[in-house]
Amino acid sequence: MKRSVLFITGTDTGVGKTVLACWLTRYLCDAGARVAALKPVCSGGREDARRLHAAGAGALTLDEINPWHYRAPVAPRFAARLEKRRLKPAQVLASVRRIQKRFEIVLVEGAGGLLSPLGENFDSRDLILALRATPVVVCPNRLGAINQILLVLEALPRGVAGKAQVVLMSPARSDAARWSNPQVLAERIGRRRIHELPWLQHPTEFECALANRRVRRAMCSLVRALEL
Fold first, then answer.
1. What is the pLDDT of residues 5-27, one digit of tens each?
2. Of 3, 226, 9, nearest to 136 (Cα)?
């Protein structure tokens, strides 16, 4: 298995990035890969980082997964300023690269959407480019998803956008767009790059989630598309 850096970003906050990161981490671990799941920056609590810690079965400490965390539930750059702190991209990149030396696959989860400010003059897009990471774009599978996903892809350089994978997260209640979104996106970016995950009532029960046939099928197609 080759060394890879994946960057899980999304169309917004609360779209399912952490759920995907946890499921993918556990799936790869079960397949025998040496995987690290990181959320370098977060604000408004560390629950996402704790879930990644659980998914990784203790391969990293909580502080290795999430070195920078702030109390206020606003964009990390502004949450940091409220605490009279400043975070520069070089600090985050150095932290991720230290972890890279120890693992075959590193999953990095961003905070908020692609262009949400993480620190002083940088966002998830900047980290994707600096790490030469493959983006995985997460979006709820509902009305509006097509526009949101295409805007995220448009915001990336063409070469990077061309290798990005898209994960559609099914909501608890579906609308008609759930069925048409994958078809329309397939016409724009190709069916192989689109992966659909079902809604589960208890997504953090990892063993139960990965026992779900639809989840495993989606994880398999994503891993294959990422060439891991």
1. 999 999 999 999 999 999 999 99
2. 9
Query: Of the listed 39, 84, 88, 163, which one is catalytic?
Result: 39
Q: Does the domain formed by 4-226 have CATH 3.40.50.720?
A: no
Residues 50, 217: Cα–Cα separation, whole Å: 26
CB-based contacts of 75: which residues, under 8 Å, 6+ apart?
A: 43, 111, 112, 116, 117, 118
Gap between the Cα atoms of 109 and 40, Å rounded: 8
The Cα–Cα gap between 152 and 10 comes to 8
What pLDDT score was predicted for residue 111?
97
Structure tokens belonging to residue 151: 């805007």
17: annotated active-site residue: no
- Per domain, the residue ranges of the chain are 4-226
pLDDT in tens, 35-79: 999 999 999 999 999 999 999 988 999 999 999 999 999 999 999
Question: DSSP label at 190?
Answer: -
Residue carrying the six token digits 């994978």: 165
Tell me how far the alpha carbon of residue 6 is from its chain's centroid: 8
Residues contacting residue 157 through CB under 8 Å, at least 6 positions apart: 129
